[in-house]
């Protein structure tokens, strides 16, 4: 296109959080012409909010710790639809990747012997579930995400990575052979629209927790990468699987780390009863997140909630003493005092299960290569497209992610994708071209908003969508509500497609960005709605009132959602790790 | 409450202006300034500001709130409000791009100038480098910086010499690596700072300490660097 400025790279990374920065570092060090494009300055990315730590068997707290135990816990945590080849890779490569972070300067907390401090987290065990609670989560106090993100950004500064900061990726550009050849993006500061062309495009855009009204996620977590993929005809996997973190501050959605329970905190109901003992006799408050969240909702539903409306439970930390609180949970102390007006050293914290993490995403190989499926249900790579981190579903989290595994996922697979792309580029990939009509397809969303003359306000529509998802797709799901929500989402689509962008100014137009984010939220919400209705069983975070049990006969598989015909297909789970024997599905108890 | 917001949209406004909005505060709870902004933006989407985490850790929404630099998401209206008025202006001392959004390039350049990454020329061990709890403690109060620029843009020495004085945020980062027992580039780092401006333009006004939304103390870090420089020079 004549008037469209074009930038060209060997590798383009969309997203500057933990996964994008780790991949960017690998590629920058390789010498290939690489750019990290991010809608916010990289250290503003949501990785910064991760608190408790990064789980990895570095055998600091327990010299006998073994990555195979971590693998077992992760497979069990996933309710057996995590891919075992990917989980094996993550858990076995993990220690090396964590040491690399330490060498880059990550300020981990330390043990008395000077090694990296590790704390207990939910769903962790020794000896394949037989040896009791493990302490496997490496921590920098309760600011591990902040420490990790800043360290990775610093390493990229050192490596001279090219950043396109405050650039908003609008859509993937796919050519006639189905190869992804880059993205159309807006340089937000000037409003200029640019074709960022690349031999390889890696999506590392993070999650989409903002489809819900109550979420621990940043305001920027709008599922941009998932939506771009869906619009480009790439399916998403297990998108019905949304994690509700047990301890979001009531009314605020702000996260209180699971590490607070790891350090000895526990939940109580209005009778002061430590109710998790009833639901998970062994692991108690450190059962898996899906288990704890469901237990909390049951307590509230059965009238044992706390507060004037009996709509939350309490997280008790005061017995830990100010020394532990100030040295290991100082970030939580600050957050609670500021946002809940509670001093955890004195009073319990009011908490509710809050949307936290998207287990689903773009299906990929261990290398980050994005996958689709042909008519015979064979995996087919999407040429030119990769995905890592929360936007991807490699899948190491399956139906329920364990705490501390997301940071590990980011760095292990960010690095793996970087290494793989480096390899691919060294084999001499040529830049594929895009025609004017390919570009026009990617530009169509911009034109739609620019040409809007009247219609509803995007902010109102966004609030409506979030409330709908919150009421219909939270911890427990019912057929009736889901069907109703699917038809309401259809109506919302019509209204969003004719909504009005009032501000059409060029310079740093955040209204334009938010309008396009609304399109993205809608794509993710609809995919979630249809996939959740389609999976007729309860597994991990997906709990259905009408299908209470896990159904391994029909659903020990991934779901794969295609947006163009709104269809849901199945994809096999990988049960073929290369080093250990596979872990067979058994009843999941904590 | 009346909220007055600094408005300037290049290509639309010929010069900056203050725009006034009426806002009814709820009776039952306090709000953060960001929540007020989000409500106003839902009605007037043209108001420009940065925001992301809304919990005081990403550092996006630094701005001048009734004359004091702070994070909008971490400043309760009750603490900032004065005579029923809330005045929101961009961070001082940096060029305005639009409304409450400033050009942070200068600030990031200063950060990059202190080599904000660990330098260690010894061979990497197979595992982590060991660090005692005591040595790790020296990083507390330093590594938590969120790069919001509230401190640097409140500093008169930065306003006068933005090109030569590194400013409190960059110097805090500089000391974060000087204080790290794993970093072996102390001499090199100090020699880069040893001129009349980079560090010594700090006049100890301590605006940075008042402005920091994370309760960090850049002045203390700067004094530590001064001490190291003086020791190094003798």
What's this entry about, in short?
The complex is a heterodimer of chains A (590) and B (234). Chain A has 590 residues and is of the alpha/beta class.
Which helices and strands, and how do they pair?
The complex is a heterodimer of chains A (590) and B (234).
Chain A: E1 5-14, H1 18-30, E2 34-38, E3 54-55, H2 67-77, H3 84-104, E4 118-125, E5 133-138, H4 144-159, E6 162-165, E7 167-174, E8 180-187, E9 192-203, H5 224-231, E10 236-237, E11 242-249, H6 259-262, E12 266-268, H7 276-279, H8 289-301, E13 313-316, H9 321-328, H10 330-340, E14 349-358, E15 362-363, E16 369-373, E17 379-387, E18 392-393, H11 405-426, H12 436-450, H13 458-472, E19 476-477, H14 479-497, H15 510-534, E20 543-544, H16 552-555, E21 557-562, E22 567-572
Parallel strand pairs in A: 1-2, 1-9, 2-6, 9-17, 15-18, 19-20
Antiparallel strand pairs in A: 3-5, 4-5, 7-8, 8-9, 10-21, 11-14, 12-13, 13-14, 16-17, 21-22
Helix pairs in contact in A: 1-4, 1-11, 2-3, 3-11, 5-15, 9-10, 13-14, 13-15, 14-15
Chain B: E1 2-7, E2 17-22, H1 33-43, E3 62-65, E4 68-71, H2 77-80, E5 85-89, E6 96-98, E7 101-102, H3 105-113, H4 133-137, H5 156-160, H6 167-178, H7 186-193, H8 207-211, H9 218-233
Parallel strand pairs in B: 1-5
Antiparallel strand pairs in B: 1-2, 3-4, 3-5, 6-7
Helix pairs in contact in B: 3-6, 6-9, 7-9
